Amino acid sequence: MPTDVPTTASHSVATTVVVVTWRGVDHIADCLDGLAAQDRPHRTLVIDNASDDGTAAVLARHPSRPRVLRLPRNTGYAGGVAAALPHVDTPFLAWLNDDAVPEPGWLAALEDTLRADERLAAVTSLLLRSDGTPQSYGVHLTTDGHGADLTEPRPPFGFCGGAVLLRTAALREAGGVPAEYFCYYEDTDTAWRLRLAGHDIAMARDAVVVHRHGASTRPGSARFHRWNERNRLLTLLRCAPGPVAARELARFAALTAVLPLRRRGWFRHGEAVPTAANFRVALRCRVLAEVAVRSPSTLRQRAAVGRRSVARRADIWRRWAGQ
User: Fold this and answer.
1) Where are the beta strands (DSSP E) in 155-313?
2) What's the average model confidence in pLDDT over 69-89?
3) Of 154, 121, 129, whose CA–CA distance to 139 is shortest?
4) Is residue 38 within 8 Å of 31, Cβ to Cβ?
5) Phi and psi of 21, rounded to 5°?
6) What is the pLDDT averaged over residues 291-312?
7) Which residues pair with 16 in a beta bridge?
8) How far apart, in Å, are the Cα atoms of 107 and each of 81, 176, 195, 227, 231?
9) For the whole model, what pTM was predicted?
10) What are phi and psi of 152, to 5 degrees?
11) CA 180 to CA 159: how far, in whole Å?
C-alpha cells in the first residue's frame, strides 16, 4: 500500500508522485531522498520497468517505503507512466524522473501554482543540470514540430516530463499517456492534447529539481534518435494541423531519399551530411516503416483527439509554433 507523508491541518494528500525507473540502482535512492524531504504530503508510486540490477533491493530498503509496481518487462518511460495512471486516486499526479532530485519546496510550488488557476492542467518544473545551469523551463514548439527544452524563462507550450504536476482528471479526459511511444515525446504529445482540450500550462520557477539527464538512456544514441524521430512524426499525425503533419512527414521521407546521393557527392555544393545517428539511412527507413505500421491506429487516435478538442489545431499551431 502507498505510504503517505503525514497530513497536516492545512494540507491533505493531493498528489501521487510517479517515479518510473529502469536499472536505477545508482540514482533512485537520491530521488526518493528528495521526495522524503518534501514539505507537502504526497504518495509515492514507483514503477519498476523489470530492473535487473538491484533496483528492487534499493526500493525495498528505502526508509520512505514507496509503493512499488514492478512490471514484467521494460515498457519505457511512457509505458511506465501509463501503467501508473489506473492506480492514482489523488486529484494531482506528478511525473518525476528517477535521476531527478527535487528540492524540498518542489511539490509545494507546483501544487500552489496549479491550485491558483483552474485553467491550468499542468505545471512544469525548473530542471537544473548537476552544475546548476538550466536544462529546461518547459518545452517550446519549433516550426518543424519538434518539442524542445526552453532554456530561458518564458511561457511554455508544454512541459518537460522529467518533473511536472498534472490534474489527474484532465490527463484522463485528454486520453492519458501514449504508452506505445516507449520514451520521448510522451510529454509534448500530452501537452498538445491538453491545449487542444482548452487547458493552459505554466511553469513554476520555485519548483526546482536537479536532473542527471540521460542516466537511464543515452541522448545521441541510435535508440534515442529512433524514438525521438518516430514519436515526433506520430505526435504531428495525432495533434498537428493536417497540412503540417503531411509536410513534415514528406520532408523526412525526402531527406531520407537524398542522403545516399549527398554522401556520393552528387550535390557538389551541398552541405556535408551530419554524422548524428538520425542521418543514417537505415535508421530513418526504420522510422518510416514504424510510422507506416502505426498510421491506421494513429489516425484513429487523431480522430478521437479531434472529438475531445475545443480549440482548433490551426489556432494552437499559429500561437505556439516557433515561439
Assistant:
1) 163-167, 200-211
2) 98
3) 154
4) no
5) -130, 150
6) 98
7) 43, 93
8) 18, 22, 23, 30, 29
9) 0.93
10) -140, 150
11) 19
